[in-house]
Structures are given as structure tokens and as C-alpha cells.
Amino acid sequence: MLATAAGTALRGAGGIAALYAGTLLAGTAIALSQVVVPALVRARAPERAGFLTGAYSMSLVAGATVATLTAIPLERALGGWAPVLAVWGIPAVAAAVVWVPLAARAHDPVPAPVGSPLWREPVAWSIALFMGLQSMAFFSAITWLPELLEADGFSEGYAGTLAGITQLVQIAPAFAIPVLAARRATQTHLLAMIVVTALIGLLGILLATEAALLWMVFLGIGQGGALGLGLILPVLRGRDPHQVAGMTAMAMGVGYLIASTGPALVGAVRDASPDWTAPVLVLIAMTLVQVPAALTAVRGPRRAGGRS
Predict the structure, then answer these.
(1) pTM
(2) Sign of CA dihedral 270, 273, 274, 275
């Protein structure tokens, strides 16, 4: 949390060097916290894993939504973008105030037994591929949907508002899906519901753009649920906190490498196409392949490296 606060503040110091250095520091700290939190949930409160992972997933979406919706008002109020970048160090400082005393009092280590390498585990790969594909679909949609909507006649401001609504809608399913997933031995039906809901949104955008507000709601429900499912699966499938951390790290590392290609891929398809039909079909394909990618992870209670 302290490194996140320092990096975020540095981003607002002005200049390209400070921007990149601050982003590297804050991004590294955020990546570490994303891996540690699911393992901490499993180690300290396994009986409340669904609720706590849901709250964690919801907070990720809510934070991104708040930042998106307040960016322009803050820029106007603070008189520039540098202080807007730096101001987000304040929540990290507040979190550090809570976490530093807890860390100082925590002397009981989490056991870390040596197990089989995760890259040999089908469950770990299934989680990582699903995390990557759902993130790829989300990043690609949030990058290109405003431009798509503008091309269909919506104003720049309304197109941006619709994209913000998609993020806002994600808050509820990001919380609910981990809670529901933790109560079931298998999550196949949740995966199907998430993918179908997102597909309805994308098909609606493709076939009936005039009802874009409705399709943004469907898309938000599907993509928010996908994030929640991606975050709870390591907690449910890892046999111990150590493996939960490893599976989460693999999901984030492999997953975000996959996800980072999405916006560029959709952009390249758009450049080679006469309209937005082909790019939307690519988004639909990204959503569909989440089903085979996640099947191994959602089918049953088998834990990686362990027994059923």
C-alpha cells in the first residue's frame, strides 16, 4: 500500500520520467496485492471465501468506475491532469493506515509446502486462460465501444456515458458470482450464464445499436461476473494458501499477457474492415472461447495437485 501510494504520487509529479517510474512502482505493488489477497482470504477465513472474494472483486470494479466517472470533474477542479493522477495515492495511504498495524502484529507465517509445478496442472492453466480471455474481452470492449457507438451516431459524451454504465453495472455481479460460486461444488452453470449474458449484449450492439443502453447492461453483467469467477476459482481449486497464491499469480501473469493483445487485435481488425461488424465478431469470439477455456476449472471440486 505504501509503494502504491508513492508510485501514484510520483505519477503526478510531472514529466514523462516520473509518469513511467511511478506507473512501474504502483503497478508492481498492485500486482503483488492482487496475488496476496486471495491467498490471505484462503489462509485466514476459508469459510467466508465467497463473500470476501466477492467484496474484493467488487472493490476492483467500483474503484475503476469511480476513477472513470470522476476524472473530468477532478481535472476541472484541480486545474490539470498531474494532480488528478497524484490524488489516487490518498486511498492507498488510507489502506496503509489499516494494514501496517495488522502486518506488525502478524507473526504466524502461512505454510508453503512444495508441490508439483503449476504449469503441469490442467486446472491452473484453465484458470489462467479464462482469466486472460475474460480480461481480453473486457479491455477490448472498454477501449473500442465508445468509438463504435460514435460511428453509429451517438454523441461523444453519450458514448462515454454508456461505457461508464457498463463498468457501473459490473459492480453487482462482481460481488454476487464469487458468493454463489463458493456455495456450489461446480460452477459450470455460472460460467454458462456469464458467457450467454455477455453474448446477448454484444449481439445486441451488433444487430440493434439503437437500444445500446440495454445492451450495455447485459454486457456489464456478463463481464463483471466473469471477473468475479476468475478471482474465486484459484481460492476454490488451490489445495492450500500457498497454491492459491501460485495459481493467482499464474492467472494474473499468463492472463494479462493474453489480455494485453486484445485491444490491438480489435484495432487491427477495424483498420482492415469497412465497418464495425468484424471487430464486434472478434469480441464475440473472445467471449465464446471462455467456455472451453474454463471448463476444466469449473467442472468439479478437484484441486490442482490433489485428490477429488
Answers:
(1) 0.84
(2) negative
